[in-house]
Structures are given as structure tokens and as C-alpha cells.
Structure to design on (160 residues):
């Protein structure tokens, strides 16, 4: 088992501020990098369908996701639909508000750590969400491991 606490040391100059730690590993830790994290404001999404996309692990090669992201046109990000199911965006997991209850896709592309945490706290509830459900939601919220629920972004517009 990999011991991240023993393997990752915060470099000088990174003690304050918000940083993303990227760990490349297989059977052992290969590389650790720290990058300043800049929150990208996302107010609009373009729906992109792809029934073959697989991103159940955080792969180093994000090209399949980037190819979808590149189709966003004038939108800030993409809402990826797989097999008619709502999933994630390029950057974030998703939640959908209906009658005061937040739902998250039962089958996301990536079961993110923040998503798992929010499910465990019953802030969001996994549900089978399809394209046909989009019209019934009051809000769509985006979050990830670097964007807490309190800082999550509500999407203003969706393009088809």
C-alpha cells in the first residue's frame, strides 16, 4: 500500500495558498508535483454525448476528456452524457436540484472523493439521471476535490 503521508512533502513556498498536488503512481509513487490551483468560473455547459468514454480512474492521459471539452463551442465546459445518462463535466462532478433535494448521477465518469464525501453526509443522493430529466431541475451545481460544496458553482445555462 502506498503511504502518501510519508511520500509527499510540501515544498518551500507552497505553505500558503491553494495548490493541487498531483501524484503519478503505479505500484510505487513515481512523481509528485504541486501546482497553483486557479478556480475556473463555469456558468454554462454544452451537452456532449459519448457512449464510449471511460474515465473511472484519474488517468494521466486526459485526451479522451479533452476531445469532448474541445467541442464546448461558446460554453465554459461540457456536460457529458453517456448512454443517455447525465454524468460529469470536464472539470467537475455534478449535482441537480429538484424540490430542495440534490441528486448526483448514479453512474458518474469518476467517483470523486468530494462526491463520495457529500453522499456519505447525505448532502447529495445518487440517482439514475437521464437526458429526459434535465428539464425538471431547478439548478445544476459543479464541484470536485478542490471545490467544496460551499464553494461549488451553479450553472446558469445549458446548450444542446
Amino acid at each position: 500500500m502506498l503511504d502518501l503521508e510519508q511520500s509527499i512533502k510540501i515544498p518551500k513556498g507552497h505553505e500558503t495558498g491553494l495548490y493541487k498536488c498531483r501524484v503519478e503512481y503505479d505500484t510505487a509513487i513515481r512523481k509528485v508535483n504541486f501546482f497553483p490551483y486557479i478556480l475556473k468560473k463555469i456558468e454554462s455547459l454544452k451537452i456532449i454525448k459519448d457512449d464510449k468514454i471511460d474515465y473511472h480512474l484519474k488517468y494521466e492521459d486526459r485526451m479522451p476528456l479533452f476531445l469532448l471539452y474541445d467541442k464546448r463551442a461558446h460554453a465554459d465546459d461540457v456536460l457529458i452524457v453517456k448512454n443517455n445518462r447525465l454524468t460529469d463535466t470536464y472539470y467537475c462532478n455534478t449535482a441537480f436540484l429538484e424540490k430542495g433535494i440534490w441528486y448526483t448521477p448514479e453512474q458518474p465518469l469518476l467517483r470523486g472523493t468530494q462526491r463520495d464525501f457529500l453522499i456519505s453526509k447525505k448532502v447529495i443522493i445518487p440517482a439514475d439521471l437521464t437526458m429526459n430529466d434535465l428539464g425538471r431541475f431547478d439548478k445544476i451545481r459543479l464541484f470536485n476535490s478542490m471545490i467544496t460544496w460551499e464553494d461549488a458553482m451553479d450553472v446558469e445555462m445549458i446548450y444542446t
Observations:
- The longest strand covers residues 29-36.
- The helical segments are 4-7, 63-69, 113-120.
- The chain has a mean pLDDT of 91.
- The two ends are 44 Å apart (CA to CA).
